[in-house]
């Protein structure tokens, strides 16, 4: 990887493309996937803002380059932060705005033109955020020469996590036939003894094609078949997809095998795609969230993609550890605060039955310019990418379009009305929310959402140190929102920082005891309100995470109930007792099971 001074340096750009970047300047080894920030000892790379370049040479199998018709060769990025331009053998193949979501390029014409199987992939990434990106940001130039060096600038953002950048998720090369299955959409409905799976398949590269579908259960038995691009499969006595702790066999997934045959010239092409499929329904009433017709209470967490060294880079051991911790905790859900998580994480949510509130990267939308048409159009495009990626996932039970925007600004009403309506049009099968700060008494997004998600930090940012105000203030918060909108409410964030190993009794801020005491105060109110219209509680945060440096952050945000290295703080045990207790009360499993034996089962 090599960093360039500025995008204007066209000569340098051309040199990077004409031959390997090894010929153009100093280059360092950079792992993929990973954030580049914490890989070296160089503080200027840690806080680097601007262009970085990656290069990789690969040898393609010869059979990818030949044939009549030759296969379609695709280069796919799981995500890269934030603005990416990609070249293959010096030819630009794709550009993409925004991190957290995949993008790909058909590179067939580039690689098949040359007899040489060597393929040089060059990527230029820029992590600069503007008022129109998601998340938004702005560059502040410090012109005062008596206080700052020449050309000094900082990236200003209004969100509370370190702005890691790099190629964060796997990059793969794959092939399809020249005619291929481009997209599948499924939705499911069910009654007690029969489920219906509506499907829609789109094929690219041929109009003369036939499609056949078969649905297999976990034993491999075919339980329904269909054909054509649009249709319905009927499943008798279905095994429904249930969230973790709501059923003894949560996360039941069928496999939908879609087979396409297409005549292209003289050749019959075949493409097969297998989609994991969960059968479940989601409904919202004025007081409840129903999964498969049963009331569902979110007892879960907010997370971040964040870890030592790799930053936001995908890390399988960490992912699996986190799911083990979630299940240890008795958590049945999480919110992908504050951006879409890796597909690998979402796959495990589907398989383990962890319900997900799938959040867009609409975090820190605070500047007035960020509510204009340019930003709005980008937000709509990002929702399209997110829905296209995650629409078939049973674990995704709700979309969240944003976190704590400055919704007190007048243009916020039109902005969020449009984003929410667009999301509902893209996916009428799921509720949509928008996460608000409890202080925004006048919330311009709330009239359009299905569920109110509210964040509050009583006794922390407000009345710091005064745990005794929580019952009154939290009760008022719930009553006010419910009275105004008559919609179910999730406490989508609450929390307190604790530095592991710091103790005091009586509890004082930043100690483990204070974090525990704050939880207990919140829980006493939540226990009353969950009998009425509160449908969930998500702790802020699952684990400590890195932020920008600041006077309120001690090596990052310490509101985790686990440390950044995934060791439990005292609060984790409070939450664990509570979540197992709630699970045992509300589950359809026999009520005799105690939390511990339930866990060991
Ligand atoms: C919030 C934000 C979250 C922060 C958290 C905090 O309201 O949604 O991103 O990290 O508060 O700890 O300040």
TrEMBL record:
It holds the Pfam family Glyco_hydro_2_N. GO terms for molecular function: beta-glucuronidase activity; carbohydrate binding. Keywords: Glycoprotein, Glycosidase, Hydrolase, Lysosome, Signal. Its EC number is 3.2.1.31. One of its GO terms (cellular component) is extracellular space. It is an enzyme of class 3 (hydrolase). The keyword Transit peptide does not apply. It comes from the Eukaryota. Residues 1-22 form the PH domain. GO terms for biological process: carbohydrate metabolic process; glucuronoside catabolic process. It is found in: Lysosome. InterPro entries: Beta-gal/glucu_dom_sf, Galactose-bd-like_sf, GH, Glyco_hydro_2, Glyco_hydro_2_AS, Glyco_hydro_2_cat, Glyco_hydro_2_N, Ig-like_fold. Homotetramer. Plays an important role in the degradation of dermatan and keratan sulfates. Belongs to the glycosyl hydrolase 2 family. This is Beta-glucuronidase. It comes from Ficedula albicollis.
């Amino acid at each position: 990887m090599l960093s360039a001074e500025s995008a204007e340096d066209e000569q340098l750009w051309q040199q990077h493309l004409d031959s390997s970047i090894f010929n153009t300047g100093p280059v360092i080894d950079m792992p993929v996937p990973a954030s580049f920030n914490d890989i070296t000892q160089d503080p200027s790379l840690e806080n680097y803002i601007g262009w970085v370049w990656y290069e990789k040479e690969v040898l393609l199998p010869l059979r990818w380059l030949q044939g009549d018709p030759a296969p379609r060769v695709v280069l796919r990025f799981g995500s890269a932060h934030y603005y990416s331009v990609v070249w293959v053998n010096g030819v630009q193949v794709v550009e993409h705005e925004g991190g957290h979501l995949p993008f790909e390029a058909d590179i067939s014409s580039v690689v098949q033109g040359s007899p040489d199987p060597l393929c040089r992939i060059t990527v230029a990434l820029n992590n600069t955020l503007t008022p129109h990106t998601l998340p938004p940001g702005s560059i502040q130039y410090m012109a005062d020469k008596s206080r700052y060096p020449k050309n000094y600038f900082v990236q200003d953002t209004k969100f509370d996590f370190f702005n890691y950048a790099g190629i964060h998720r796997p990059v793969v090369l794959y092939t399809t036939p020249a005619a291929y299955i481009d997209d599948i959409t499924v939705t499911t409905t069910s009654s007690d003894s029969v489920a219906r799976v509506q499907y829609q398949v789109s094929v690219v590269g041929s109009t003369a094609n036939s499609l056949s579908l078969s649905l297999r259960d976990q034993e491999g038995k075919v339980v329904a078949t269909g054909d054509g691009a649009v249709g319905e499969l009927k499943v008798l006595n279905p095994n429904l997809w249930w969230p973790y702790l709501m059923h003894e066999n949560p996360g039941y997934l069928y496999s939908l095998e879609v087979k396409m045959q297409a005549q292209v010239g003289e050749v019959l092409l075949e493409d097969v795609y297998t989609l994991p499929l969960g059968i479940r329904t989601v409904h919202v009433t004025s007081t409840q969230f129903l999964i498969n017709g049963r009331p569902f209470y979110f007892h879960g967490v907010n997370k971040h993609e964040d870890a030592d060294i790799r930053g936001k880079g995908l890390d399988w051991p960490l992912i699996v550890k986190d799911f083990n911790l979630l299940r240890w905790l008795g958590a049945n859900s999480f919110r992908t605060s504050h951006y879409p998580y890796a597909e690998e994480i979402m796959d495990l949510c589907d398989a383990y039955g962890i319900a997900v509130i799938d959040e867009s990267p609409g975090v820190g939308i605070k500047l007035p310019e960020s509510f204009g048409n340019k930003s709005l159009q980008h937000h709509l495009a990002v929702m399209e990418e997110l829905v296209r990626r995650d629409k078939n996932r049973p674990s995704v039970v709700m979309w969240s379009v944003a976190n704590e925007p400055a919704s007190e600004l007048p243009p916020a009403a039109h902005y969020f009305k449009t984003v929410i309506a667009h999301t509902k049009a893209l996916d009428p099968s799921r509720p949509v929310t928008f996460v608000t700060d409890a202080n925004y008494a006048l919330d311009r997004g709330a009239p359009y959402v299905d569920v109110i998600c509210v964040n509050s930090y009583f006794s922390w940012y407000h009345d710091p140190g005064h745990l005794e105000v929580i019952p009154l203030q939290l009760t008022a918060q719930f009553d006010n929102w419910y009275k105004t909108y008559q919609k179910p409410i999730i406490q989508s964030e609450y929390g307190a920082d604790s530095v592991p190993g710091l103790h005091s009794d009586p509890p004082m801020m930043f100690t483990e005891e204070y974090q525990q005491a704050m939880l207990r105060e919140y829980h006493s109110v939540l226990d009353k309100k969950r009998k009425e219209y509160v449908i969930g509680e998500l702790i802020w945060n699952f684990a400590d995470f890195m932020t920008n440096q600041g006077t309120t952050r001690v090596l990052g945000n310490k509101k985790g109930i686990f440390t950044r290295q995934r060791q439990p703080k005292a609060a984790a045990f409070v939450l664990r007792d509570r979540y197992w207790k709630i699970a045992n009360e509300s589950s359809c499993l026999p009520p005799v099971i105690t939390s511990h034996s339930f866990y060991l089962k």
